[in-house]
């Protein structure tokens, strides 16, 4: 495996899975969106990525005439738009879950002919794929477990080298932590994230993310205890004082998700734009 992720390079990440990374590096995408090719004789493309011509060409070249299915973990614009061009070029079947309403962050072009229920197994001649409904980053998010390899394709539920941003209303922190905990019930050998390298210590990684999120929540509660009534902008500067201030506008989305979680649990409340502890 290359130490540096190179867009367009085909990397074998497990016995049945290859990775091609899109040329869309950035603050929210890291080195780029990872597209996974599962199978050899009949191929499923998971997270086709953005509709970048070079990326589409790389996928088609790697698949040849064997592309049969196109799946998306979710419908953010860096994960699913290339499905249209790939389906037109190959006749492959598009599969995945959609949202009933677009929050302004979704890909409206994604039109699957099949959706997945939680824990549904989809079997081909070469592999078994288990779909896990993992809301949190977004309500329609799925992770896909390639059972023979113990490899979980995590989409944006887990990213290597970066923290996932939770943007309400379709992003939900309470759901996110519950979905992370859910993954610990499955026999995982490795994680294949939507951005970054393969993660070989899945349990430690998942438990570490849960600990980090709950630690951030504890810091939020302590800050509210000290400050009393406060607006979210000032609250962000306290709770994320360990993060570069230039990233605070992004962090504010996740902080709102934390506050909404506490509001559901009746531990915090708001008056207009101001937040405070209950009781």
Query: What value does the Rg take, in angstroms?
Result: 19 Å
Structural class: alpha+beta
> What fold name stands as the CATH topology of the largest domain?
Metallo-beta-lactamase, Chain A
The major beta sheet can be summarized as: 6 strands, mixed
Q: Residue ranges: pLDDT <50 for 5 or more in a row? A: none
What order do the helices and strands follow? EEEEHEHEEEEEHEHEHHEE
**CATH architecture designation of the largest domain:** 4-Layer Sandwich
How many domain units? 2
Q: Identify the overall geometry.
A: elongated
Distance between termini? Answer: 54 Å
Q: What is the CATH domain class of the largest domain?
A: Alpha Beta
Content of β-strand: 15-25%
Q: Number of DSSP strands?
A: 14
Oligomer: single chain
Could you name the CATH homologous superfamily of the largest domain? Ribonuclease Z/Hydroxyacylglutathione hydrolase-like
Order of neighbouring strands in the sheet with most strands: 1-2-3-4-5-6
By DSSP (H or I, 4+ residues per run), the number of helices equals 6
Mean pLDDT: 96
The portion of residues assigned to helices is 25-40%
Which features would summarize this protein structure in a list?
279 residues; alpha+beta; Metallo-beta-lactamase, Chain A; Arc Repressor Mutant, subunit A; 2 domains; 14 strands; elongated; Sec-metab_biosynth-thioest
